[in-house]
Amino acid sequence: MLLIEKKHPAWQAGRYNLPGGKIEEDETIHEAASRELQEEVESDWPARTDLYPRDDRRSSDFVVYVCRCDYDSLAGRNVLESMTDERVFWMPLAEAMNHEKLIDNLRIIIPPLPSRN
After folding, report:
1. Backbone phi and psi for residue 54, each to the nearest 5 degrees, phi listed first
2. pTM of the model
3. How far apart are CA 82 and CA 60, in angstroms?
4. Does some domain include residue 47?
5. 97, 11 in Cβ contact below 8 A?
6. Closest by alpha carbon to 106, among 57, 68, 37, 33?
7. Percent of residues in the chain assigned helix, strand, coil, to nearest 5
8. What angle do CA 80, 42, 21 make, to 5 degrees?
9. What does each of the 117 residues of the chain score in pLDDT, given as a tens digit?
10. Is residue 109 a contact partner of residue 63, using CB atoms and an 8 Å limit?
């Protein structure tokens, strides 16, 4: 899972969150996810054509879309560099979901992943 060690807002400082943000007017979910990823993380990825919406969580006040993109860390791809003053890094999903620094609502927002055979 791609995580950001947040410095701001204050309530997230020192905690781990996902890259993300708001969808701009006339922007698709895919476009917003690609833009937010580019704004927060510089990587060696090509255009994010393999980034796609996976699920959503809704309340009366908001909708959170969870997107997924695959990567191959063993092939030496996906070198990361933060585009902000916050650290970006990869962590295995199972480890991240149990990490004490993970923002609590991510355990609800991130849908369970199917097992891979």
Report:
1. -110, -35
2. 0.76
3. 33
4. yes
5. no
6. 57
7. 25, 25, 50
8. 110
9. 889 999 989 999 999 998 888 899 999 888 888 888 888 887 655 555 567 777 788 888 888 888 777 666 555 555 676 777 888 888 888 899 999 999 988 887 776 655 444
10. no
3-state secondary structure of 64: strand
Q: Two tokens at 22? A: 């708001």
Q: How far apart are CA 81 and CA 42, in angstroms?
A: 5
- In angstroms, rounded to a whole number, what is the distance separating the alpha carbons of residues 74 and 72? 5
Instruction: Identify any residues that bridge with 52 across adjacent strands, giving them in sequence order.
Output: 68
Residue 55 maps to which CATH number? 3.90.79.10
The domain containing residue 86 runs over which residues? 2-109
In 3-state terms, what secondary structure has residue 16? strand
Per the structure, how many domains does the chain have? 1
